[in-house]
Amino acid sequence: MSESAAHPDAHRFQVRHPEWAAHATIYEVNLRQYTPEGTFRAFEEHLPRLAAMGVSIVWLMPIHPIGEVGRKGTLGSQYAVRDYFGVNPEFGTLDDLRHLVQTAHSLGLYVLLDWVANHTSWDNLLVEEHPDWYQRNAAGQLLPPVPDWTDVVALNYKSRELRRYMTDALLYWVREADIDGYRCDVAGLVPTDFWDEARLELDEVKPLFMLAEWDELYPSGGLSWEDFNSDTKLLENAFNMTFGLRLHYLLDHIAEDKQALSDIDIYLAAERAKYPPSVYLMHFTSNHDVNTWDGTEYERLGPLALAFAVLTVLVPGMPLVYSGQEAALNKRLAFFDKDHIDWRDFPLQDFYTRLLQLKRRHPALRNGDTTSQFQHLESAPEVYAFIRQKGPAAVLTVINRAAADRAVALPTAAEGTWTDIFRDERVLLQPNEKLTVPAHGWRVLARE
After folding, report:
1. Which of 352, 386, 357 is closest to 268 using CA atoms?
2. If we measure between CA atoms, which residue out of 107, 135, 109 comes closest to residue 120?
3. Quick one: how far is CA 12 from the chain centroid?
4. Whether CATH 2.60.40.1180 fits 376-447
5. CATH number for the segment(s) 10-370
6. Helical H runs in 318-374?
């Protein structure tokens, strides 16, 4: 599949990506669980490590005060926002947040805040001050957006006053904390024209990077097809990137032997049919929802957890790393209570550093590059191999899902001299020569 193929609807996608995003990897920060202190200042000490690992974008889960009415657990959900203009004292102060952002910028990092525009806590002051800003049932009662989200109530974007308020709140954090963008929770449940209008105003302050929690190829997690609006056009004018949820679910199904490795090609073809190569999708093996509710990558993917991490970094799209993955975190973090990460001397720090630094430097791995090429290579059963290439520069990736080593015969497209980025050795692939890939393992070869 060629990334450079013309797309008939490319003209509709008008979002401009900042140049720094072309080689970017995003890292999600679960601030509450990141350190024993669970504060901005304590997390800030990790920023140099993340920059050295190859991270470009730091996404902070919601930083606002949390509702107390209907609260789940002892600390509540960070997605039950009580005050859009406040900082959760559990994490620190506005000045602490500003200091974190300034430190990140000094290290060449960019900071996104998690934004919950679709719903508020029951005790958000807006409930009393602007009751018409909320959705209600036939009996006039407030409604949660999803039945089991009992700690929040849904907003009603038919109100122009609500749209003005929410846009002003978004503008506030850009102006007051100098953040670089937002990750927007269940963005497809909020009218797309609100995001389009807000983006125009936000970019007048500074060019932002906007991430939508949604996937127009697949419904958002936990929602039924009836809730899914396949006509939302989030990536045309408002957002730089959405979640690659369908690939996430596909990898889970492959690990469960419910689908074949070759179905990755079907997914990539569907992605390309819907979007031009310039569009960003985010790929991952874990995030805060997946870890807590579906299980760790080791529960879901078993021995393929790291091989599929390699895949999500090296297929077209922007990779996400979740808090604790570089520590080989193998527990479900509590969502509503304190449950801090045991970092254990970061056993996978080198693994992710090799991948993310390759992503950062290699010209064939640029996000949204319409001039690069992706080619699936025919290989042995239980093996998925591909090359991403831009001119003479290329990256060859081979994933082995089998429980035994595989000696893989590769086509002529793979011939030549490469550098194995995990073994730090030169590899010469000659005609009829086979490449050995370990059980449940991978080989990543680069030519620069």
Report:
1. 386
2. 135
3. 23
4. yes
5. 3.20.20.80
6. 349-361
d(CA 336, CA 316): 34
How many residues does this entry show for the chain? 448
pLDDT of 66-87, one tens digit each?
999 999 999 999 999 999 999 9
Q: Which two tokens stand for residue 344?
A: 């254990």
* Tokens representing residue 383 in the block: 């093996």
- The count of C-alpha atoms lying within 13 angstroms of the C-alpha of 163, restricted to the half-sphere facing its C-beta, is 15
> pLDDT tens, 292-305?
999 999 999 999 99
Beta carbons of 184 and 239 less than 8 angstroms apart? yes
Domains of the chain, residue spans? 10-370, 376-447
Burial readout 246-285 (b: 16 or more C-beta within 10 A, e: otherwise): bbbbbbbebbeeebbbeebeebbeebbeebbbbbbbbbbb
